[in-house]
Design goal:
The chain is α/β, with parallel strands linked by helices and 401 residues long. It has two domains: 4-171, Rossmann fold, CATH 3.40.50; 180-390, Rossmann fold, CATH 3.40.50. The protein is 35% helix and 15% strand. The chain has helices at residues 34-38, 40-48, 73-83, 96-103, 127-138, 172-185, 201-212, 225-231, 246-259, 303-314, 335-349, 359-367, 383-389, 395-398, and strands at residues 14-18, 25-26, 29-30, 52-56, 110-112, 143-146, 168-170, 192-196, 217-220, 262-264, 268-272, 285-288, 297-301, 318-322, 353-357, 377-378. The strands form four sheets. The protein has a six-stranded parallel β-sheet, with helices on both faces. It has a five-stranded parallel β-sheet with strand order 5-4-1-6-7. Strands 12-11-13 form a three-stranded antiparallel β-sheet. Helix 8 crosses helix 9 (246-259) and helix 10 (303-314) packs parallel to helix 11 (335-349). It starts with 13 loop residues before the first strand and ends with a helix. It binds adenosine-5'-triphosphate and 3-phosphoglyceric acid. Adenosine-5'-triphosphate (ATP) binds at residues 197-200, 203, 222-223, 240, 298-299, 322-324, 326-327, 329, 358-361, 382. 3-phosphoglyceric acid binds next to loops.
Length: 401
């Protein structure tokens, strides 16, 4: 994979950088700026080389329309605060204003182009249409740097097609992510423990399939665990359940037994009358995992399981974690996620290599007050880190070879 040093002297060059600034917003307030901070090393390195840094990014899924709530204005403001310089936001991606702002740049300046997904061609499935659009963006720059790890699993205009029209290389974040995630997929130090949670089995199936052949231990929590408990014949009440995945999951349980992969499921569950939204009362109670009342919903792993999961994680040399253990957004159901995060921190202290993957998991770690350096690596990729762990070829990386 080509990297920044392969691009030669960048002084005075117009460098188009694709970043992933797809940050969670509450109105115009950024609730987690982790992805913006993760892009700083590349931006600072390019500025130090005297390059003109022209940033491209998406925010949400505006489906090719200009959606004011998804303007990158809050990102430009936050980026300016973090860099200590003004970061002008172009009104468009490749139009008059983009050209005017780029033309006005001096060496070391930074400009952010407006949300690439305001353009329908960005996500077009028609390669010719996407290429014509990518060429228009490429006209703004001399070289392309791909640093949005969170979108490398997408073959879209600003992170994939553009590499056909300019000398291209990976930025420092993409380099760091590939190096860290490869440590978990290529000859990892063992025991390798994979912890999966979050809200949908189907999102994580590829990972389970691929890692079952690699992991020594698979620890399952979150909303997806109830499909596993049901597959074992337990009742799960009104908990999240993907009936159509039951047979697949039964297959995984058998494969794990046959291949000697330790499958760790919770033995107790925190239940509630319903999902904690609106006027649903939050009245948590702990029940055995094989005795969930028919009218209750499981929303976190229980205290016995928190200790079990923590101890299994600490007894590992490599740990990959994707997906919260419970509805961590509500304090009453955050303890499972906290216990797993603590397990990774303790494993890191004991010398293990630990990775937190997934947008929600990374936000949970930060929102629950864990220091980022308590983990070996916090990935900025959600789906992208999952697909990397699945062993899939990622289009945004392939174009950099
Ligand atoms: N038992 C549960 N019941 C319902 N929802 C749950 C449960 N446990 C966790 N969740 C929800 O799962 C969501 C996160 O699931 P998701 O799979 O998106 O996580 P993630 O893998 O970290 O995200 P991504 O990989 O997409 O960045 C959280 O919003 C959380 O509230
Ligand atoms: O949030 C993410 O996972 C990345 O920014 C990719 O976003 P997308 O799923 O809308 O392509």
């Amino acid at each position: 994979m080509k990297t920044l040093k392969d691009l030669g002297d960048l002084k005075g060059k117009r460098v188009l950088v694709r970043a992933d600034f797809n940050v969670p917003l509450d109105g115009t307030t950024i609730t987690d700026d982790g992805r913006i901070r993760a892009a700083l090393p590349t931006i600072k390195a390019l500025r130090a080389d005297g390059a003109k840094v022209i940033l491209m990014a998406h925010l949400g899924r505006p489906k090719g329309k200009v959606v004011p709530e998804l303007s990158l204005a809050p990102v430009a403001k936050r980026l300016g605060e973090l860099l200590g310089v003004d970061v002008p936001l172009a009104e468009d991606t490749y139009g008059e204003d983009a050209h005017a702002k780029v033309a006005a740049m001096n060496d070391g300046d930074v400009v952010l182009l407006q949300n690439v997904r305001f353009n329908p061609e960005e996500t077009s499935k028609d390669e010719a249409e996407r290429d014509a659009y990518a060429q228009k963006i490429a006209d703004l720059g001399d070289v392309f740097v791909s640093d949005g790890f969170g979108v490398v699993h997408r073959a879209q205009g600003s992170n994939y097609s553009i590499a056909k029209f300019l000398p291209s290389a990976a930025g420092l974040l993409v380099e760091k992510e590939v190096k860290a995630l490869s440590r978990a997929t290529e000859n990892p130090e063992r025991p390798l423990t994979v912890v999966l949670g979050g809200s949908k089995v189907s999102d994580k199936l590829g990972v389970i399939e691929n890692l079952l052949g690699k992991a020594n231990r698979l620890v399952i929590g979150g909303g997806m665990v109830f499909t596993f408990l049901k597959a074992k014949g337990y009742e799960v009440g009104t908990s999240l359940l993907e009936e159509d995945q039951l047979e697949t999951v039964k297959g995984y349980i058998e494969t794990a037994e046959k291949t000697g992969v330790e499958l760790v499921l919770p033995t107790d569950i925190v239940v509630n009358a319903g999902f904690p939204a609106g006027d649903t009362p939050v009245a948590p109670e702990v029940v055995k995992a094989d005795a969930i009342p028919a009218d209750k919903m499981g929303l976190d792993i229980g205290p016995e399981s928190q200790k079990l999961f923590h101890d299994k994680i600490v007894d590992s040399k490599t740990v990959v974690w994707n997906g919260p253990m419970g509805v961590f957004e509500v304090a009453a159901f955050a303890e499972g996620t906290r216990a797993v995060a603590q397990g990774l921190v303790d494993a890191t202290k004991a010398g293990a290599f630990t990775i937190v993957g997934g947008g929600d998991s990374a936000s949970a770690v930060r929102n629950l007050g864990f220091p980022e350096d308590g983990f070996s690596h916090i990935s900025t990729g959600g789906g992208a880190s999952l697909e990397f762990l699945e062993g899939k070829e990622l289009p945004g990386l392939k174009v950099l070879e």
